[in-house]
Input
Amino acid sequence: MDRVTAPGGVRARARVLARADGRGGTSLPVLEGEGPLAVRRTRGSGAEARVMLVGAMSGPLGGDHFTVTAEAAPGARLRVGSAAATLALPGQEKADARYDVRLTAGEGADLRWLPEQLISARGSDLYVGTRVDLAAGARLLLREEQVLGRAGEEPGRLTSRLTVRIDGRCVLDQELACGPGAPGGWDGPAGLAGHRAVGQLVVVRPGFAAEPPAARVLGEGAAVMPLAGPAALVTAVAPDALRLRRLLDGALASLGRD
Output
């Protein structure tokens, strides 16, 4: 679709809907993107459908508002990734930018949200709001990775809120603000402790209801915490994006095979 503009910046939406096809696979009856949010189907694996978000232009810039919606209907298996990191940049508009992610999975569905890193460049101001709604019996693997500034660069301001509901019950609602103007202490010992990469995994598996993972520290910079539901939260901090990914991958492996 064509680029959509509005006063205050670019407005763009992308939508993905996955359904079980009745033959042991997953179909994609809805695959829509506009402006900087292009969506492409890639080669799947088994019953899983795979979709890639492709940045068609720079952004989000100041004043932009992007929204991505991904739904895995009951019994569907959907994996969503991105072709490259998302780079938040300052724009001509002085307003902040906003990136909303809305994820839904029905009963027996498996949804994997695995984009590349979000980089907060100097002078940018971005709010990311991610909301996940899961039916009972749904599975989720969600990864968020945020890098504060490019190499040798001070970060912009980045605020990120993540909310997860399972069968209508909220199991996680947290917000992190970093960079200029963020509440004091975000970079101190009780916050990121000088690190410039922060990430988390949310893992929801029905099997966790009977055998929840134990709370524990994994090496230096990562921790696993069970949530009040069949879910676990992994948080990690690292000096850079590469080491952050290694920490998260190692934490996921420690939770065992799904």
Observations:
- Helices lie at 241-254.
- The first helix runs from residue 241 to 254.
- Confidence is low (pLDDT under 50) at residues 1-6.
- Residues 5-136+146-192+226-232 form one domain.
